[in-house]
Amino acid sequence: MTKRNFTLNSIGKWTVFYIGLICAVFFFVFPIFWIVTTSLKHRVDVYTEKPVLLFSVTWQNYQRIFELHDFGRYLLNSFIVATSVTLIIVYFGALAAYALTRWRIKGYNWVSLAIISARMFPPIALLPSFFLFASRIGIVDTRRVLIFAHATYGLPFIVFMLAGFFRQIPRDLDDAALIDGCSYFQLFNWIILPSVAPGLAATAILSFIWSWNEFLFALVLTRASSKTLPVVISEFIGFVQVDWQGLTAMATILLLPSIIITFAAQKYLVRGLTAGAVKG
Amino acid sequence: MRQRLPTISRPGFLSKRERVIKRSIRSERLIPYWMLAPLLVGLAILVYSPMIGTFALSFLRYFWNKPQQPIRWAGLNNYIDIFSESLFWQAFGNTIVFMIVSTGLSVLIGLGLAVMFDRKFPGKNVFMTLILLPMMTAPVAAALTWKFLFDGQWGAVNYFVNLIGIPNQAWLASPKLALPAIMVADIWLYAPFVFLVMFASLQALPQEPMEAARIDGGSRWQIFTRITLPLLVPNFLLIIVIRLMDTFRVFDFIYIMTNGGPGGKTETIGFLSYERTFRHFNMGQGSVIAIFILVVVLLISWYFIRILQKGLLEQVR
Hints:
The complex is a heterodimer.
Chain A: H1 2-38, H2 43-46, H3 60-68, H4 71-102, H5 108-120, H6 123-136, H7 143-166, H8 171-179, H9 184-195, H10 197-213, H11 216-221, H12 229-236, H13 244-273
Helix pairs in contact in A: 1-13, 3-13, 4-7, 4-10, 5-7, 7-10, 8-9, 10-13, 12-13
Chain B: H1 16-29, H2 31-57, E1 60-61, E2 72-73, H3 77-83, H4 86-117, H5 124-132, H6 139-149, H7 156-163, H8 178-204, H9 208-215, H10 220-248, H11 252-257, H12 269-279, H13 283-316
């Protein structure tokens, strides 16, 4: 008798638990599901009173944004910027993190303070004079200026993250290579970097996503030819008539890398993302 | 490090070989600085100088769309203008409300989910991945998604609200509902990150104190409130500081979803600074607000900076 009560009770508990869980999942997943499906709908299925769940799939919206709005070019811009930013951040971030974790540096407190507080500065506080300076020397609306801005602003966080990975490589490795006659840069490029490869991969993914997603720098520093996806989308919203089909198609493309990564590399990113927020 | 070669030292005189060794030791000492140089130079040129530049601009009267107009020294006039403007204080109030509600709710939701996931149940990994989906979403895409969901005419939110008997609302055009709608979008985007951090912290907690309490007959709730939560306080503080910092400078959501409207009800200071600088071309006033944001963010993040610095220091040892 008591046994049955116990199981009934626990069934009740688990029901409540799963209802709560499903509500949470619905809240976090439905918006993405909705955007992706809307981008695949015909006009009649988008502008309806009731949300339409069963619809015939069309690629028209994607075709339209690529053909009429030159979306491919901006996609390429975003890709080039994010890739260059990733390469710069990963290499120079690793270099700095290595230096910070292997040597006792004079003025260590100041250096680390300078790096960490740079991460805290809100971009909007840099942008007025950054923009002014960039437009004076005529590099506004180039991919170059955006790459430098993203790379520099993204570096401090990455340095901090990578420092955790470097700490785990034994110093003996360095010493052995140096005794064998490596120069410091050979040591770094051919021995240290490969041995933190997992850390570098996580860092690379985060840097790519950070640059791919970034909006404010891109909005201010690019005008026409070098616009990235977030800027194009923000301009496409318009003021009177909102073209939701085109917009959801663009948003889906913008979402794609982050969704793929969440599914593919979630476990590996957990550690990287929580660096600095979790100790232990 | 590299082994020193034995040398015979005579005071005041160095052999050629000794000179070479001495030089190489000196240049070796410089290596970490060379490795740090790209980062530090980058930060100096692209972060610290613009910062100083913005500070200087805040004392100037300068409209950058009129290059023929002379740049004039304005002293504290920009500061006086901004701080006596009602729109600024309205924006400040909105930002504070947004900051507190968004941070509070996302931390509560994140913690709630973390506690839910702190056990074994079928489908755990799948549920976790699904909840983490929004985490790396571009803010622009998130804002656009919610702008569509909250649309007064075609939005799906109205459909769900109708189900529980509330009539259609023009969410983002309503003075009362616009800011809460933006908060929902913000929470949607950032609560998964809070969840992840809280979950990882829960997993990293030592199990012994809880075990001991359980043996001593403590109830689940007692163990959670008296032991688990106090142990989580440092992680709590960090995530709250991160959230406060990010919500205080909120920009993307405002820009995409409402443009500060209706009637300044969703104007935030981050957005106001952008508007002044890049839409009204008023560099001086825009910079004043930018500096204001910087000061507040640094005040909030001081604790965070110290913790990170300590962490980095530990890694050297």
